[in-house]
């Protein structure tokens, strides 16, 4: 019995969210501790089946929130000229949904990879990105392509809308704590809120965006110089401006405050904001464990710790 497996990880925006919408750079990195996995087999009854956390049954009667996956399946079979036999697709994911961790992109990447492996076909990065971006447009209305890129790659990226993404290694000693606030992130609303603020306070928002862009550029240098203290400082400054842009909220700020008070080198929201996740930085793993504990006390539902340095 032939089986195809596919996998993808979640992602974190280290710095530069929101400013990236206005063509400033952002740094995003893979987060391998939360993953999406897909498994493809030949369907036994000749009908297309899908099994996931949200739905288990025939693909044709799947609810709308699986339209993105349906699209990914269709496009993969089409673009890669695979036979259209009925398949059974099982999806497992440990990535919390709607937290700015790239859950929908990761699931789509895993499904495309699993189908390709099932048919023993090579799929190019360009094909994979094209297919998953189409699925992302269905899931989110629009996409910057950042989630597709980072969930399907082992590299971190310096990402700018108008430029080719620049992969780079996070060769820096330090630990990142990711904390899920338990609140649904509201990327769409937050992006719209910033756009409206820009109409009211054009000069201020313009300057905030440019400043965040400068912080990101400095953060890239700090990473290259293995300066975790400088990176932490820049993350905190970045959050100050996100707060001014009104995309944080009380829950996120309490968790971020707890990280600062516990001695984190820096802390900020990550992703769209108005809920979702926050990140903080420490120099050692022991410190990270303590900071994570304090972030939980302040309301975080779940925390993960990971070394920034990628193997
Ligand atoms: O919430 P996420 O991880 O999808 O990140 C959104 C990042 C924004 O800069 C706010 C929006 C965007 O499309 O880049």
TrEMBL record:
Gene3D superfamilies: 3.30.230.10, GHMP kinase, C-terminal domain (3.30.70.890). Keywords: ATP-binding, Cytoplasm, Kinase, Lipid biosynthesis, Lipid metabolism, Magnesium, Nucleotide-binding, Transferase. Residues 221-300 form the GHMP kinase C-terminal domain. It comes from the Bacteria. It holds the Pfam family GHMP_kinases_N. Belongs to the GHMP kinase family. Mevalonate kinase subfamily. This is mevalonate kinase. The gene is mvk.
